[in-house]
Amino acid sequence: MGANIKTVEVVANVASGSVGRDAPAQVEKILSDFGLSHHVWTPEPHELVDCLRAAVDKAPDLLVVLAGDGTARAAAELCGPDGPLIAPLPGGTMNMLPHAVYGVRPWSDALTLALEQGYEQSIGGGSVEGHSFLVAAILGSPALWAPAREAARFGKPRLAWMRARRAMRRTFQGRLRYMLDGAARQKAEAMVFICPLTSKALSSDAHALEAAALDVHGVSDLLRLGFHAVTGDWRETPGVETVPCRMARVWASRAIPAILDGETVQLKTLAEVRYVDRVARILAIPKDL
């Protein structure tokens, strides 16, 4: 085994379609085959954070998270740079963090490889108002569309339409002002900050975030921007340019809607986004596997 691991806590979101009800038994078999002391938690979606906290409180050598990017983000916040190692396995919708760490492969294969050849790696990410993010932060109008997207994803078209109308009413009511690394003040409809581990423009060991200001000039641009922002194709929006950034100040006339690793949060009227060198420790695998 590549890392010195003896005790393992597992938090599996079995309600996710990409995990399944048989996942706990599969996890237990893999961990038993490696002779590891383990405990598997299978909380309901609304119990995930409390369950993560309880698992971290047991101070295991490794915390396995079989869920989405948002749950992995919560685990990183709880573990911090000096807490348990984290193995973020693909168990969500987009799985951007697991794919960056383990490649695009089934979670069972990723876990087996991590236990066989894994090594400890500190990873950097972003921080805003005490919240960490390991994939991306989206601030501004596109975040207003996240509740509508979630309702549509769970087959609730009426609720999705109501939330979309609410988002449309709130859009264009106030643009963001921002400064990147102390440069001149500028305006934008939205800001995107990508962590180096998942950025296409930065190397994975860069000590900065990839930052971009996104603008719109009407409803059609807004809809396109909202779609691209939640699908990860926001660079397709016309006029987008990205720059490395270690610290940004973003403010608006009202609370700023945001999406952090797929999870919706509301920030204050002034938010400071920073790159953090050590957010958490992960159980990584060699890149050539």
Topology overview:
Elements: E1 7-12, H1 23-33, E2 37-41, H2 48-57, E3 62-67, H3 69-79, E4 85-90, H4 96-102, H5 107-117, E5 119-128, E6 131-133, E7 136-140, H6 146-153, H7 157-170, E8 176-180, E9 186-188, E10 190-194, E11 209-214, H8 219-231, E12 242-245, E13 247-251, E14 256-260, E15 263-267, E16 270-284
Parallel strand pairs: 1-2, 1-3, 3-4
Antiparallel strand pairs: 5-6, 5-16, 7-10, 7-14, 8-9, 8-13, 10-11, 11-12, 13-16, 14-15
Structure, briefly:
The protein has 289 residues and is an alpha+beta fold. It is 29% helix and 33% strand. The chain has two domains: 7-117, Probable inorganic polyphosphate/atp-NAD kinase, domain 1 (Rossmann fold); 131-278, Tumour Suppressor Smad4, CATH 2.60.200.
Folded structure, characterized:
This protein has 8 helices and 16 strands. The strands form 3 sheets. A 6-stranded antiparallel β-sheet has the order 6-5-16-13-8-9. Strands 12-11-10-7-14-15 form a 6-stranded antiparallel β-sheet, with no helix packed on it. The protein folds into 2 domains: 7-117, Rossmann fold (3-Layer(aba) Sandwich); 131-278, Tumour Suppressor Smad4, CATH 2.60.200.40. Helix 2 packs parallel to helix 3 (69-79) and helix 6 runs antiparallel to helix 7 (157-170). 29% of the residues lie in helices and 33% in strands. The chain has helices spanning 23-33, 48-57, 69-79, 96-102, 107-117, 146-153, 157-170, 219-231; strands at 7-12, 37-41, 62-67, 85-90, 119-128, 131-133, 136-140, 176-180, 186-188, 190-194, 209-214, 242-245, 247-251, 256-260, 263-267, 270-284. It is an alpha+beta fold. The mean pLDDT is 84.
